[in-house]
Specification:
The chain has 124 residues and is of the alpha+beta class. The protein has a single domain, classed as Endonuclease, Chain A, CATH 3.40.960.10. 46% of the residues lie in helices and 20% in strands. The chain is built from 6 helices and 4 strands. It has a 4-stranded mixed beta sheet with strand order 1-2-3-4, sandwiched between helices. Strand 1 and strand 2 form a beta hairpin. About 4% of the residues have low confidence.
Length: 124
């Protein structure tokens, strides 16, 4: 039954500046993000992922809405912001989103292993 209301869109729930930031990030991915996206795009794992997906005050590197799973590729800067990353993961968890953090070096050195980690996480 149509009650005249529509489902909220990304723009409805994400801060406008994060939507803009996400668009910029899509245009300039890191090498690791680009490599992983080539494997995740077009549902190649049997699951649809979004790239640089805005969610509230955050931008998720890769996100499967079906599985409520965010895959974050962590470069060297994340060594300096572990407290922030833990807080962010907690905030996302409170919204029902699980976070899988993968070092960018692992994407570069063992892409098959990364895909296996993602497959395992999707099965939970």
């Amino acid at each position: 039954m149509d009650n005249g209301r529509r489902d909220p869109t990304v723009k409805d729930v994400a801060e406008a500046q994060k939507v803009h930031f996400a668009r910029e990030q899509r245009r300039e991915p890191t090498v690791a993000e680009s490599a992983l996206w080539q494997c995740l795009r077009s549902s190649r794992l049997g699951v649809r992922f979004r790239r640089q997906h805005p969610f509230a005050e955050f931008v998720l590197d890769f996100y499967s809405a079906e599985h409520h799973l965010a895959v974050e590729i962590d470069g060297p800067v994340h060594d300096q912001q572990r407290d922030y990353d833990e807080w962010r993961d907690t905030e996302l968890a409170q919204n029902g989103i699980r976070v899988l953090r993968i070092p960018d070096a692992m994407v570069s050195n063992d892409l098959d292993g990364v895909l296996e980690m993602i497959r395992n996480e999707l099965s939970h």
